[in-house]
Design goal:
Keywords: Cell membrane, Electron transport, Heme, Iron, Membrane, Metal-binding, Respiratory chain, Translocase, Transmembrane, Transmembrane helix, Transport. It catalyses: a quinol + 2 Fe(III)-[cytochrome c](out) = a quinone + 2 Fe(II)-[cytochrome c](out) + 2 H(+)(out). Residues 11-237 form the Cytochrome b/b6 N-terminal region profile domain. This protein is mostly helical. It has 18 helices and nine strands. It has helices spanning 6-19, 22-28, 41-60, 86-96, 101-128, 137-159, 164-179, 184-192, 201-231, 251-276, 282-285, 301-312, 331-359, 375-394, 397-403, 408-447, 471-477, 503-516; strands spanning 32-34, 69-71, 83-85, 248-250, 318-319, 328-329, 449-456, 462-467, 549-550. β7 (449-456) and β8 (462-467) form a beta hairpin.
Length: 555
């Protein structure tokens, strides 16, 4: 399109006459967005965050963030006359006495779960496609900060109703604080305003939940979107896609219409879930009391992995200087609370820089990788998912033992073994699968796509007819390039090791580069031994009348 549409040119001319901004709007309103479905995963997180802000604003009009004691006299008859906190009583009022209150409460809760889930899936998409590489490392770090803040935002919001279930989670939080050496007791007294449970934790969590953390989230999301806008989108490989262009739809009108409908679709899903799927029925749990506990209590899914790590951790502790009076380090709480989350987040932060250090690759990347084309990275990602998933499942080991009639002790022992064995097996299986999928790509390029047509050859043999892949599919498959390696890691490197390969650290770096990089399954030239698969004429078109046939797959 060489001319600017009237609905863009008119407003641009109006603003240019007053602000001198015509060129800015003409340029940016025609910005191209890629069409691949996976790029919409980040938009789900953005839309659910908007819904969280709107529904949370509605709830703050009636919520009372106070731990002062009142006697309930609302509409819910089973709790009439029961002493409870003002926070819990106001939540019950929102649920039963405010028009639309229960629906908005459930919309807010479902949106919080979907927000965290969409952030996680979006991060996985970026990781598996290598979209965190130069020049997008800063945006990757901002994404990790958003995910971390989302976890804390969920924790503070989960505790606000002051019901029995959220109070049990708050008690675990206090136990984690006390396990921190030297500063644990001070942090606990500061958060709770004295001895647990105190009178200050709900007001302080409320301030964090509606002011501080959302403000930081809004700022980081804004910077995240600005950087994405300036740096240009990554895009999946395919015909006509290069590092110098973006193939897709313009912001106005195509992408804006699609994005707006996607926002409405996300809102419709959340309202549908909130209408037909009950979540967090606090009126069934009752008000929180430190002396009470409920069986089968589970946190929201994004905190479930911490619950699992607490359950399988042995009861280890260290008494400093050999005496309990001098100070005790409860490793059974400290390691599960800080270990898994610290391991995952630290690995995510360091990975782009470790990969660049191992491969020596400092070039810019605007074409996303197919996960199979970097087997080690994909295997590492699946290892992390397996580690996280096992801890999430083990957080319900009591329910597993109950419903499947298994000893609770055996579920714990099995979890302690699986948490080490499962990720290792996942790594090996994923790595081999990636290599197998690469071989499948080579087979398609060399022998074509199975047509489902069986042909009988003159000597009586039956073979399946194969057709060449489409131009777009072939460009998609041929986008794979060898993973860079350090100079000293190449098989044909000189006898005198380069500077990067000298010393113990240099030799380790070269060894890791040799294992991580390279091209395990070369694409070849796209021809089989008979010279008819993948042929093209002088004009680049495939010759007519040729039907590639495959007799046996390579390797």
């Amino acid at each position: 399109m060489t001319t600017v549409p009237k609905f863009i040119a008119g407003p641009s001319r109006y603003l240019d006459d007053r602000l001198g901004a015509a060129n800015f709007f003409k340029r940016n309103l025609r910005k191209i967005f890629p069409d691949h479905w996976s790029f919409l995963l980040g938009e789900i997180a953005l839309y659910t965050f908007i819904i969280l802000l709107l529904s949370g604003t509605f709830l703050t009009f009636w919520f009372t963030p106070s731990m002062g004691h009142v006697v309930y006299d609302g509409s819910y008859a089973p709790l009439k006359g029961v002493q409870m906190s003002e926070a819990y009583a106001s939540t019950l009022d929102i649920t039963f006495d405010v028009r639309g209150g229960l629906l908005l409460r459930q919309v807010h809760h479902w949106a919080a779960l979907l927000f965290t889930a969409s952030l996680m899936v979006h991060m996985l998409r970026v990781f598996f496609t290598g979209a965190y590489r130069k020049p997008r490392e800063l945006n990757w770090l901002i994404g990790i900060a958003l995910f971390t803040l989302a976890l804390f935002e969920g924790l503070t919001g989960y505790s606000l109703p002051d019901d029995l279930l959220s109070g049990a989670g708050l008690r675990i939080t206090q136990g984690v604080l006390l396990s921190l050496p030297l500063v644990g007791t001070y942090l606990s007294f500061f958060l709770f305003g004295g001895e647990y449970p105190g009178h200050d934790v709900i007001p302080r969590f409320f301030a964090l939940h509606i002011l501080l953390i959302p403000g930081i989230l809004v700022a980081l999301i804004t910077v995240h979107l600005i950087l994405m806008w300036v740096q240009k989108h990554t895009q999946m490989p395919g015909k006509g896609r290069t590092t110098m262009n973006v193939v897709g739809s313009p912001l106005l009108p195509a992408f804006m219409a699609k994005s707006g409908s996607y926002l409405l679709f996300t809102a419709a899903v959340l309202v549908g879930l909130s209408t037909f799927a009950q979540i967090n029925p606090i009126w069934l749990y009752g008000p929180y009391s430190p002396a009470d506990i409920s069986a089968g209590s589970q946190p929201d899914w994004y905190m479930g992995f911490l619950e699992g790590s607490l359950r399988i951790m042995p009861s280890w502790e260290i008494n400093l200087f050999g005496t309990a009076q001098a100070g005790t380090l409860p490793l059974s709480v400290l390691i599960p609370a800080l270990g898994p989350l610290g391991l995952i987040l630290t690995g995510l932060v360091l990975y782009p820089f470790l990969e660049r250090w191992i491969t020596g690759d400092r070039s810019e990347h605007h074409i996303a990788d197919r996960p199979r084309n970097n087997p080690h990275r994909t295997a590492i990602g699946v290892t992390g998912i397996t580690f996280y998933g096992l801890l999430l499942v083990l957080g319900a080991n009591d329910l597993i033992a109950t419903f499947f009639n298994i000893s609770l002790n055996w579920t714990t022992y099995a979890g302690r073994v699986l948490i080490f064995l499962g990720p290792a097996v996942a790594y090996l299986v994923t790595y081999r699968l990636c290599l197998g999928l690469q071989r499948s790509d080579v087979t398609v390029l060399d022998h074509g796509v199975e047509a489902g047509v069986i042909r009988r050859l003159p000597h009586g043999e039956f073979v399946e007819v194969h057709t060449p892949p489409s131009d777009d599919s072939e460009a998609h498959l041929r986008a794979r390039s060898p993973i860079p390696v350090l100079p000293g890691a190449r098989p044909d490197s000189e006898r005198v090791p380069p500077e990067v390969a000298r010393g113990p650290l240099g030799r380790l770096r070269v060894t890791m580069s040799r294992a991580y990089g390279g091209d395990q399954i070369p694409l070849g030239d796209g021809h089989d031994g008979e010279g008819h698969d993948g042929e093209r004429g002088p004009d680049g078109e495939r010759p007519a009348g040729r039907t590639p046939e495959r007799k046996a797959p390579p390797g």
